[in-house]
Amino acid sequence: MAPIAIPTSTPVAVASKAPAVKSPDPDTTNGKLSPALTAMFHNWSTFSFAPIRESTVSRAMTRRYFHDLDTHAESDVVIIGAGSCGLSCAYTLATLRPDLRISIVEAGVAPGGGAWLGGQLFSAMVMRKPADVFLRDVGVPFEDEGDYVVVKHAALFTSTVLSRVLGMENVKLFNATAVEDLITRRHHEGDGEDGEEGEGKIRVAGVVTNWTLVSMHHDDQSCMDPNTINAPVVVSTTGHDGPFGAFSVKRLVGMKQIEKLGGMRGLDMQAAEDAIVKGTREIVPGLIVGGMELSEVDGANRMGPTFGAMVLSGVKAAEEVLRVFDLRKAQNDK
């Protein structure tokens, strides 16, 4: 196995201290609001927003979005799915390699997947140790219960990780955007690696995208062609089978790259969480699969309302990206 391409000055393990977050004003600490905000109190009768035209708002949005589309049409890594696994992968990868251009494609309007609530629509989020090391790194407070920790509300976890990821200069989230297909290349002998190669083998080299609302109406509208993002490595974290779930691995079956899906098994938390983290890997060249999507490939159990495996599967997916990135980029550039 090739060595992982990680800068020697940066440890692979998640650090125990959260990165510093710049406060907008030092006066907002210790329960105090900033003087600028408190100055508004009792002065609402003279309050007025700065005057701008409606077209200014439109241009401010569209200019930036189309710039992002242009910039990220050639990405280094695409992450499909902005749930807890995809977001933890993005955080880890973008932290270790700020030079990589990372695109996250999320079908929903609201990123976060199923991590806004715990089990059965309850608030608290439970993670078994050692997943608490990730919480410490991103700065999510929790109650330590010995072998597991509890975040008082799952939304606290998701919103914190989102804020960390979206604040990174090398990451762009395209939400309300569906992946409709994978970009593929023929995987030839002599591509610079050992392993199974030959007739019919493919390498994933990006994703085919469309607005999610467009994707949902291909059956009742005329042809609405998609867009594309090229990338030497794609990380798929689309969850277990569902309307948009297990998308990439189901597509691999259709392309005859894997014979069939193993099918997710019943709930067994003890077996499931270890299996998902350990099994996170590159399924075919250029495509790394993590989180519950992996259970559909391997026939792993579901783990129910505990989230540690999703987080650490994302961390391992980032490690897998770093392991194969240089090789896949060299192949992609040919």
Automatic annotation (TrEMBL):
Binding positions (substrate): 85, 106-107, 114, 179, 225, 240, 292, 302-304
SUPFAM superfamilies xrefs: FAD/NAD(P)-binding domain
Co-factor binding details: Binds 1 Fe cation per subunit.
UniProt PTM comment: During the catalytic reaction, a sulfide is transferred from Cys-223 to a reaction intermediate, generating a dehydroalanine residue.
Residues carrying 2,3-didehydroalanine (Cys): 223
InterPro entries with a match to the protein in the record: FAD/NAD-bd_sf, Sti35, Thi4_fam
The keyword Nucleotide-binding is annotated on this UniProt entry: no
One Gene Ontology MF term: iron ion binding
Principal subcellular localisation of the protein: cytoplasm
UniProt cofactor(s): Fe cation
Protein family per UniProt: Belongs to the THI4 family.
Oligomeric and partner information: Homooctamer.
NCBIfam families according to UniProt: sulfide-dependent adenosine diphosphate thiazole synthase
The protein's name in its UniProt record: Thiamine thiazole synthase
Phylogenetic classification of the source organism: Eukaryota, Fungi, Dikarya, Ascomycota, Pezizomycotina
